[in-house]
């Protein structure tokens, strides 16, 4: 196989491991700017949310994946760090790829599948992706799906196979600089695999028995187009009663009477027109001329719409000669039967007009019209099916519909269709359409189901899967398959290829469409039409064809080829699924038998040769070749004649040893794809891993490794000889599926599927450390994987659409070291018990993981955490009991005992109790609780209440309050900032300051004018008088605004799908340009699910006042968008002080008091010194000290004698 060869289908052969390991990508990745965030003063830092995979935004263009639900898949590659780079989203499966090199230059990568859109570009099953520009070019011209492509560098040709029509070929065609028909007209059945043999021939494999194409039935022009279903109008109709209605002539056969004939006004040209809700490709027009009162149409023309073209016809004239006409086609006068006109060109239309330009007698008219086609359709809209007018249309196509179906306009589709919207439990009986075509000739048919696109009717989010069943022959040949209906644009799926019996009185072929049972609601199901195409072929083949591209003509003596001859030795009806070539030997796999050959064999120099054990005991669906080793997958459980342990669904065949070995012990169901990829699974170097995808639910036990559950995906690590899940040192887990890959020169490996890589231990909550470019690490707790979801099992509640971790808290007081997580999740405790929704990781004395007891309802949700002393308050949508005491909305956990507190606050009450915010008042025993409730115990305190921890009593902190509180933050010891949507004192507000002393609210900046409730907020400066707020506007979009103390400033630039869950001002290590909104030494961290129009989605972005920069990307286990609820830190008071040249408010007050005291003391000292200097300057001298003998005389002088004469002096004493 040449280096440009690729997977011929999701189950075919790819590049060798050696190529993968030696490939060096020449792509230039541009590193994203450093976020420069400063975490140095915050202590421990963590991010919380709903995710299974998380990474920092490292490379420009890096983005989160979109949801892989409903069969959508990605084209993707890998960044240098191993993370996946999403390149283009397909609305269905990508099944095959190869790099197209023409004359030595890479033209792009050919991508094939059953999609109708790739990267938002309409593309019917095949497109060209340019790795240099990422531009997508649809290769228009095919109708159907592509299953295999092979890019042949030597001939600069792409060979394409599948289930499609294009040009004059069916199921096989070539692309050079455009579509080129092969010398043969394709195949009469699907092509599923293409490869190149060692001698240069191209080998096609599939389900066909001959070269050929679709054809028309032997009896032509017998499918009647239902004209009565159209909107019929006319111009210049007569006013004569019984002859003016243009509908008179539909389904009439020349009965020239009132009510059966349409006439024009006398001597006036006019027209007859029909517009229809479905498209058709007519082959014959039958007209009945009128002879009413000698009138009749003499000449006319036929104009088709929407092309607005006049059609050419052939007909047999009155002399029996073949004639043609265009603008003036004739009708004979007095004709008592009909005249047939055959369309020269095959033109699709949904509207046509017959213009009458000349007439016999007094005016023109018609007494009957019929339109025929060769296409055999059955429409879901029964009115579009064949009428029963004459001997030709006695049976007619038909359909029946049961369920809540409504007719939907065609939009961009080819016809109107039926739509059913299901809102309750979905079963196969919820809705049903049975299609019954009018098959007049038995034969081999290709049956195609048409599905209208979901973009035109805006139902992509609710489309799902349908079950297709049916019967084709009187002997019970049946079909049973499932199809996704999530295609963006119209698509066509072949649901059956084979023999179909003609309709009779006792049997009629039919196809039934129903929804697949058990799907989520609301579910939208659509049904449009089914087409039956008669197929003809040369015969002589049996699933394989060896094509020599050097021969201009096809040799139909197939016995000359050993490939064709080997296939003909198999039982009739062989289905070839995969091909591989090693040296001069071709390996063929599929569904077939012949003697000792079963489902896989080789073709060397001689005939077909069985592999050891007689082959495998059931269908082989895929092969992946690595040198002389071939990995195979399918429905088998072992070889046929010998028993090799572990060959269940997947196996390895060694060409060198001519032997089978197992991959572990296999899986418990079919495998349909084995694809290699490079992965760093242990945190060291990348190595090759084989992605195994299929329809299995568990991987079988092997050795000391027990059986484990999975959802159709497992990864085999060849270097370890074990499954990735079983490796103790693995740091990554994979989920989803991988269907195709190819190697591209100077680019590397290109992958297709719905693969999601999840870092083990990095689910829903992670540690963030380091400044500048920080790094992510586990929080130190192992979250047990749960089948069918992520590593945390998540359930959305009805009251709060919250999953994962919603909030967190680091508690490092009183000698404790605890990390606390709250939200809606399931994990395991250190004792092995189940933990729901509140998780405490106690690292005080070795790690101990504990959580709520099972008396707290598992469907609770924790939304808010706060600590007062050693009491942890947890609020949310919480119900349950503790010590026979009801819990509702709030509970208290004793951190000193690491258990629920024995005494709990009285339960909150209301119709839908939820606590969204808890704020412990600084310097007091009071804890304030906000949310949506009516009472606390017996006390009325709607949505805002205060709990006194010293007395264990609830108190009403204000009066006249009504509404919902979403967030609260203390500004000072007595001032609380409250965000939500509420009314207090008759005033509506969404952001207000609550004064705990005055017990009053003050609106901040006429916040009632904000476009919606405030759900997230953060202070924008150290004084806490500027604020950032976010929420959801009344129109459903998110808003982000800043309050500068006086005015509000709105920020734009976020996409419509943005959901903001958290805000936080963070310091930076390097200043950015100063803006009016954000200081140069800070950035605003926005968390949630943020849509950036130029960067896609991110879970956290940084805003510097002018631009948004992605920061954190997350995904869920199913490939959907993850989200972050926010950041929580050990030292939240340092958010506005770390390297920001600002101090916290408390420190500012203390420093100010110290400075004031210092200044006062200094002034006093200076005053004393100045006074001493003044006195000395004025002659003051110290008084002489008295001798001891002089003290005695003091007692002898009465005080009045000493001071008594002072008041008698008239002048001031002299000093």
TrEMBL record:
> Which SUPFAM superfamilies does its entry note?
NHL repeat, TolB, C-terminal domain
- What Pfam families does this protein's entry cite? Rax2 (PF12768), Rax2_2 (PF20842), Rax2_3 (PF20843)
Residues in Rax2-like second domain copies: 220-366
- Enumerate the spans annotated as Rax2-like third domain: 377-535
- Keyword Ribosomal protein included in the entry's annotation: no
> Ranges for the Rax2-like C-terminal domain?
890-1139
Quote the InterPro entries the UniProt record gives.
Answer: Kelch-typ_b-propeller, Rax2-like_C, Rax2-like_second, Rax2-like_third
Which residue ranges does UniProt annotate as crossing the membrane? Answer: 1143-1170
* Entry's Gene Ontology cellular component terms: plasma membrane of growing cell tip
Q: Which positions are tagged coiled coil?
A: none
The UniProt keywords, alphabetically, are: Membrane, Signal, Transmembrane, Transmembrane helix
Please list which residues make up the signal peptide. Answer: 1-26
Against PANTHER family, the record matches this protein to: BUD SITE SELECTION PROTEIN RAX2 (PTHR31778:SF2)
Q: What's this protein's name? A: Cellular morphogenesis protein
Which organism does this sequence originate in?
Answer: Aureobasidium melanogenum (strain CBS 110374)
């Amino acid at each position: 196989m040449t280096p440009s060869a690729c997977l011929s289908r999701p189950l075919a052969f790819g590049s060798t491991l050696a190529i993968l390991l030696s490939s060096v990508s020449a792509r230039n990745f541009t590193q994203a700017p450093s976020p420069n965030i400063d975490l140095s003063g915050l202590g421990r830092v963590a991010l919380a949310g709903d995710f299974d995979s998380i990474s920092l935004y490292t490379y420009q263009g890096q983005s989160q994946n979109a949801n892989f639900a409903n069969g959508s898949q990605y084209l993707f590659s890998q960044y240098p760090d191993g993370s996946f780079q999403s390149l283009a989203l397909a609305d269905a499966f990508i099944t095959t790829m190869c790099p197209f090199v023409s004359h030595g230059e890479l033209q792009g990568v050919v991508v094939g599948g059953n999609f109708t859109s790739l990267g938002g570009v309409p593309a019917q099953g095949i497109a060209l992706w340019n790795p240099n520009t990422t531009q997508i070019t649809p290769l228009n011209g095919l109708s159907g799906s592509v299953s295999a492509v092979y890019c042949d560098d030597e001939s600069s040709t792409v060979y394409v196979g599948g289930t499609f029509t294009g040009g004059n070929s069916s199921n096989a065609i070539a692309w050079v600089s455009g579509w080129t028909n092969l010398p043969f007209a394709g195949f009469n059945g699907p092509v599923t695999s293409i490869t190149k043999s060692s001698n240069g021939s191209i080998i096609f494999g599939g389900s066909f028995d001959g070269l050929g194409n679709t054809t028309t039935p032997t009896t032509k022009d017998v499918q009647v187009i239902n004209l009565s279903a159209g909107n019929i109008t006319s111009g210049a109709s007569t006013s004569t009663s019984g002859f003016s209605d243009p509908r008179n002539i539909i389904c009439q056969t020349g009965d020239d009477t009132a009510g059966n004939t349409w006439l024009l006004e006398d001597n006036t040209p006019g027209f007859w027109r029909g517009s229809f809700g479905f498209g058709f490709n007519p082959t014959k027009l039958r007209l009945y001329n009128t002879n009413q009162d000698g009138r009749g149409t003499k000449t006319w023309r036929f104009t088709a719409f929407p092309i607005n073209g006049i059609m050419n016809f052939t007909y047999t004239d009155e002399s029996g000669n073949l004639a043609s006409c265009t603008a003036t086609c004739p009708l004979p006068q007095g004709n008592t039967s009909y005249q047939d006109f055959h369309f020269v060109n095959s033109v699709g239309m949904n509207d046509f007009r017959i213009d009458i330009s000349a007439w016999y007698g007094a005016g023109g008219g018609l007494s009957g019209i019929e339109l025929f086609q060769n296409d055999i359709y059955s429409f879901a809209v029964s009115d579009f099916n064949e009428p029963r007018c004459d001997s030709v249309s006695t049976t007619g196509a038909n359909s029946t519909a049961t369920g809540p179906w409504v007719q939907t306009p065609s939009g961009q589709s080819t016809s109107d269709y039926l739509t059913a919207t299901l809102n309750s439990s979905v079963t196969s009986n919820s809705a049903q359409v049975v299609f019954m075509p009018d098959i007049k000739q038995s034969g081999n048919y290709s049956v195609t189901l048409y599905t209208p696109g979901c973009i035109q009717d805006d139902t992509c989010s609710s489309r799902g899967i349908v079950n297709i069943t049916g019967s084709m022959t009187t002997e019970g040949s049946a079909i049973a398959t499932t199809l996704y209906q999530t295609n963006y644009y119209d698509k066509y799926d072949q649901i059956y290829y084979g023999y179909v019996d003609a309709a009779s009185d006792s049997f009629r072929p039919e196809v039934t469409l129903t929804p697949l049972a058990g799907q989520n609601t609301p579910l939208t199901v659509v049904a449009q039409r089914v087409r039956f195409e008669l197929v003809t072929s040369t015969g002589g083949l049996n699933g394989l064809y060896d094509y020599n591209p050097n021969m201009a003509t096809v040799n139909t003596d197939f016995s000359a080829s050993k490939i064709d001859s080997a296939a003909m030795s198999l039982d009739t009806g062989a289905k070839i699924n995969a091909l591989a070539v090693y040296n001069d030997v071709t390996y063929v796999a599929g569904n077939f038998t012949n003697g000792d050959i079963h489902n896989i064999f080789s073709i060397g120099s001689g005939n077909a040769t069985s592999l050891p054990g007689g082959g495998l005991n059931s269908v082989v669906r895929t092969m992946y070749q690595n040198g002389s080793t071939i990995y195979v997958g399918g429905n088998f459980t072992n070889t046929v004649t010998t028993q090799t342990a572990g060959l269940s669904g997947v196996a390895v065949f060694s060409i060198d040893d001519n032997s089978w070995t197992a991959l572990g012990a296999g899986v418990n169901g079919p495998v349909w794809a084995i694809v290699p990829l490079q992965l760093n699974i242990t945190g060291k170097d990348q190595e090759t891993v084989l992605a195994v995808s299929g329809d299995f639910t568990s991987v079988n036990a092997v050795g000391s490794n027990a059986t484990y559950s999975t959802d159709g995906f497992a990864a085999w690590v060849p270097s370890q000889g074990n499954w990735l899940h079983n490796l103790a040192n693995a740091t990554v887990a994979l989920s989803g599926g991988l269907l195709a890959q190819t190697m591209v020169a100077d680019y590397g490996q290109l992958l297709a599927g719905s693969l999601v890589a999840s870092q083990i231990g990095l689910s829903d909550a992670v540690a963030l450390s380091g400044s500048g470019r920080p790094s992510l690490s586990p929080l130190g707790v192992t979250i047990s994987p749960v089948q069918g979801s992520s590593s945390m099992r998540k359930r959305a509640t009805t009251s709060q659409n919250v999953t994962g971790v919603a909030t967190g808290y680091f508690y490092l007081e009183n000698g404790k070291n605890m990390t606390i997580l709250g939200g809606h999740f399931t994990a395991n405790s250190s004792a092995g018990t189940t933990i729901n929704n509140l998780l405490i990781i106690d690292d005080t004395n070795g790690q101990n993981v504990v959580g709520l007891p099972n008396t707290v309802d598992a469907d609770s949700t924790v939304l808010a955490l706060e600590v007062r002393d050693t009491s942890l308050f947890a609020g949310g949508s919480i119900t349950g009991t503790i010590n026979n005491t009801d819990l509702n909305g709030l509970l208290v956990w004793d951190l000193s005992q690491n258990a629920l507190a024995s005494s709990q606050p009285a339960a909150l009450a209301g119709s839908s109790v939820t606590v969204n915010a808890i704020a412990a008042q600084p310097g007091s025993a009071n804890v304030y609780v906000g949310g949506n409730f009516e009472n606390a115990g017996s006390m009325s305190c709607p949505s805002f209440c205060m709990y006194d921890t010293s007395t264990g009593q609830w108190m009403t902190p204000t009066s006249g309050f009504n509404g919902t509180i979403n967030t609260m933050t203390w500004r000072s010891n007595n001032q609380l900032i409250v965000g939500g949507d509420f009314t207090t004192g008759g005033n509506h507000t969404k952001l207000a300051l609550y004064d705990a002393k005055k017990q009053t609210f003050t609106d901040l900046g006429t916040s009632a004018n904000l476009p919606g409730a405030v759900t997230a907020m953060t202070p924008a400066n150290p004084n806490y008088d500027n604020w950032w707020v976010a929420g959801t506007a009344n129109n459903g979009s998110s808003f982000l605004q800043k309050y500068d103390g006086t005015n509000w400033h709105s920020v734009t630039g976020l996409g419509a799908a943005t959901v903001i869950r958290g805000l936080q001002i963070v310091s930076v290590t390097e200043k950015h340009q100063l803006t009016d909104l954000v200081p140069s030494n800070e950035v605003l961290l926005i968390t949630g699910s943020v849509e950036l129009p130029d960067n896609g989605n991110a879970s956290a972005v940084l805003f510097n006042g002018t631009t948004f920069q992605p920061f954190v990307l997350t995904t869920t286990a199913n490939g959907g968008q993850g989200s972050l609820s926010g950041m929580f830190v050990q030292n939240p008071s340092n958010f506005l002080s770390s390297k920001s040249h600002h101090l916290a408010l408390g420190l500012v007050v203390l420093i100010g008091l110290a400075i004031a005291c210092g200044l006062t003391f200094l002034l006093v000292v200076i005053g004393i010194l100045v006074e001493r200097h003044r006195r000395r300057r004025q002659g003051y001298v110290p008084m002489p000290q008295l001798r001891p003998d002089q003290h005695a005389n003091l007692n002898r002088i009465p005080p009045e004698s000493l001071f008594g004469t002072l008041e008698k002096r008239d002048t001031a004493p002299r000093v």
